[in-house]
Structure formats: structure tokens, C-alpha cells
User: Fold L-rhamnose 1-epimerase from Prauserella flavalba.
Amino acid sequence: MATGPRRVCFLLRVKPDRMDEYRRRHAEVWPEMRAALRETGWGNYSLFLAPDGLLVGYFETDDLDAALEGMAAKEVNARWQAEMAEFFENLDGAPDEGIVPLSEVFHLD
Assistant:
């Protein structure tokens, strides 16, 4: 059985006409948002954006529920999510509420 942090991967879709602005915003993520992610157990967090708007998110955490709940309690996260919500297609609620982890089917150590 695997030990160490859980690897979490999720998908969202950025509106095609908002992709350039989405990239710009993520080139300058607020320092307090970065700190909040680290403090709540989001490690090795990456976002990948495909040309068609498919967004692939990946992070590692020791406790997914605690990481999500920790960020939900952060005021900076509420502000960030409110600003980011307009970038996504077919989203009910805040973007971080749309995280549905994909099932891992293979991993090479």
C-alpha cells in the first residue's frame, strides 16, 4: 500500500474567452493565498491549462478533507474563489467546491 501524501487530481473548464486573463491571474497569485494553501496542507500544487480550456489541477496532501476544510475557513480563499468563479464553465458554487478528485489508476514511483 502506498504511503505518504495522497495525490489529488481534478478537472475544471475555463471559458475560452477568459483563458488569457486566467493565465495572467495565476502568474500573480496573492502571497497570502499561497501561504494559506501551504498552511492548510496543499503541497506540490500545480494547474495545467489545455488550449481548449480544460484545466487539470494536481496537489498532494496528507488529509484531503482537512485541506479542503482548512481553505474553506480562510478569508483570503473566499475572496480568491469569488474572483475566479467567473472564469469557469458549468460551475455551481465556488471553484474549489467543484473539486471532484479523479481516481488514480497508475503511478510510477
